[in-house]
User: Fold these one by one.
Assistant:
Number 1:
Amino acid sequence: MPTHYLACDLGADSGRLILGTLDNGKISIEELHRFPNGPVKTSGALHWNVDALFNELKNGLKKAAARNLSIASISSDSWGVDYVLIDERGLIMQPVWCYRDSRTAVGAENVKAKVDWPTIFSETGIQFMALNTIYQLAAEPPERLARAKQMLLIGNAFNYFCSGVAKNEISLASTTQLYNPQTKTWSKKLLDALKLREEMFAPICPSGTKLGPMKKNLATEVGLPQIEVVASCSHDTGAAVAAVPASGENWAYLSSGTWSLVGVEWPKPVINDQARSLAFTNEIGYGDSVRLLKNIVGLWIVQECKRSWEREGKKYSFAQLEQMAASAPPFVSLINPDDPRFVSPDDMPKKIAAFCEDTGQPVPANHGAYVRCIYESLALFYRATLRRLERLTGKKIEKLHIVGGGSQATTLNQFAANALKIPALAGPTECTALGNILIQAIALGHLPSLAAAREVVRNSFELKTFEPQDAAQWDAAAARFEKLLS
């Protein structure tokens, strides 16, 4: 008999409730409900409207109930680093801050005054990004933190809203830069240095933890039985990597979307001076594996350009932007996607033009040239990142798996294969929801292992292979690009 599961997949642009069905060694998914998300600007500050998101989840759960299926469980996943503070009454303490808010710069300075960067990296193995939870908490007023009973990361907060059980699942906890992957606990050294109360941090649980039944009042409201609530991999990238349809070794992954996350699955943390200087990060995946990766600003740059052009009256689909990029002249201008200016929103074309002017390159001539510049630069950054990963691990990477919404960007996928000079396999697009669901299936004993789950993905989806082309051109461009990184 088919088994059904629900995945609440929360992204920075939208949220979805996904129905997953496991049947005879194959998995299928269906979007039951989609709802918009995005930072809300209030008095110049960026917040998340978590109450509205939870109401939308309830609307989705009502649609699930209307299907009259026997649903086994539900789990939520989200982007990393952002959090919800819960007070003594179990209620959300507003506001819920967005990681793109400028307050993170103040937080980074506050942390720097109390603990040095080598200590932070040796404790956590996480690359410096001013948006990390450690810096966000350091920007909080002390009196607000004193009133907080619990700190829950976003995906874990939604599991709490569903179950009443407050746990921070390990994959999401590892993004905070307050988790120590060697002791497998919150870092007492960092909490003490920053005067953060350890009891405020909800306990850490492994990926695939059964939290208990859905709260009775919620189940009654939406018309579902009290199905099991599972903490699968609560971090969207952790879930996506769990569903990468890979087998064997010598493969890397690119989780391609608003962010590009490029890395390898590794048995233990790599925490040394070289990893720190190359800005690699050790996030935790299913089964306590390590996602040794680099966070790169990804299709966010294209999304922000698209929004800017829409404000000017030019509305493009992503398919049109793909076509325009493919027909633009190659390698006219390149940017460093890691430049801090590309993290914040608003007028992205102007920022790209300024970067080109600052580095003595032509400003892109038209919208297609802008997108081509972004795609080529991202592909070259993937190359630079994987070459450094090979040096760090001593492993030669022979294949790249591209998953997530960005795996539909065929021009970018081809550029990635060209730049890396290895085959790139694209798909599935919905790896986050798939990983979320498959880990629920493992937690409930419906699948025996992660290897079995990945076999289910391979049996269920056709992958598109991109073979490398134009090696000499891309080698020349890579030499130019490396100068922009220094």
Note: The chain has two domains: 3-235, 244-427+448-486.
Number 2:
Amino acid sequence: MAKHNLDARGLLCPMPVIRAQNAIADLPQGDVLEVVCTDPGAAHDIPAWCRVHGHSILEIKQKKDELVVIIEVGEANA
């Protein structure tokens, strides 16, 4: 399992989800992607996208004006 980071700060919907989708497409199952974004809508959009595509949300945390979403790549990428 490897950890990867995605900086989606300053991007508005739907770009944080699209960037996460593109990053995850290249990752093997079990890897972890940490997405840092400033769009408050990403707190709902990224988990919804993950549910549809078989990935797991490990944690969502707020750090000042930033949202950090930690995703485990699911078997959809296997």
Note: The longest strand covers residues 56-63.
Number 3:
Amino acid sequence: MRKTQITVEVELDENHIPEKIIWNAQDGGIEKQETKAAMISVWDGNTKEALRIDLWTKDMPVDEMKQFFHQIFISLGDTYLRATGDENIANRIEEMAEEFAVKSAIKM
């Protein structure tokens, strides 16, 4: 059996606020790459619930956070389509993402 590893290192300030986030994904060619935000979700099959870790550095600008969310919404629609084959719901997720972009002033 082959194994791989993805790691996230978080440097915190004295108030436990992330100052720096570094991630590694050997199979993806990512080594010690700095990022301003990360959202990690896993499925707990026993409790049937999603567990999350949401991190962002204190210097993450609000306009970039809005763009980050918009791109996550688009990705969710793509992933949902691949996972379920349900084009109708995938299209609704994309429509919601576009509405979010307009309402959050990312797109006019």
Note: The chain has two helices and five strands.
